[in-house]
Amino acid sequence: MASNPKTGQELPASARRVELLELAYRYAAQRGRTDITLRPIAAAIGSSPRVLIYLFGSRDGLVRALLGRARSEEIALLAELRQAPRPEGLRDAALRTWSWLSDEARRPLLRLWLDGYARSLSEPDGPWAGFARASVDDWLDLLADVQQAEVRDTPAGLADRTLVLAVLRGALLDLLSTDDEARVTAAVRLQLTTSGAD
Predict the structure, then answer these.
(1) 95 near 102, Cβ under 8 Å?
(2) Of 5, 18, 52, 136, which sits 20 to 30 A from 178 (CA to CA)?
(3) Which CATH number covers residue 72?
(4) pLDDT band at 89 (very low <50, low <70, confident <90, very high)
């Protein structure tokens, strides 16, 4: 259960809180931004600022709840990739991941992720604190799961996972900036099929 950041008291757990969080998440994902204010989001989701404060404690409480909801999307992807037929190795998993990331339907969600990631870095004590680091750690763990056992726990294995993650994130930034999926996907395929030990 969430707690009020000002008072430390537990916030009410209710179906209405879950419903409004989902609506707020969809609103934020469509906008691709986390710099929401209570009045417009309340109007957009059929609520009021007072109700949002009651249910989430504050604007920052709502942002923290949105962070948790965004992380649940990422964790669901990781679980889905882990349950998929075993890939041939690190680069095969990375190419499958890129196919998921580059899907046009996910652009608003990925813009929201990028905004949260950047805010985590620029406001290290804000409501998005730790989001970027946790995201990196989650993805490195996923990539370790598909790496060949003999290199997984070596410094070279960690460096290879880090390189693959850097390629995916850099390509994602390019894609979100340009929407040139064909060009960026060609570059990802070129990099992931011609480098590294897998």
Answers:
(1) no
(2) 136
(3) 1.10.357.10
(4) confident
Cα 91 off chain centre by: 21
* 28: containing domain: 15-194
Residue corresponding to tokens 């570059």: 187
Distance CA 21, CA 57 (A): 13
Among 56, 58, 31, 60, smallest CA distance to 129 is for: 60
Residue 2 placed within a domain: no
**The model's pTM:** 0.73
Asked if 46 contacts 23 with a C-beta cutoff of 8 angstroms, the reply is: yes
130-182 pLDDT, tens digit per residue, is 889 988 998 898 889 888 889 999 999 999 999 999 999 999 999 999 999 99
User: What tokens appear for 127 in the block?
Assistant: 């409501």
**How buried is 114 (Cβ within 10 angstroms: 0-12 exposed, 13-18 middle, 19+ buried)?**
middle
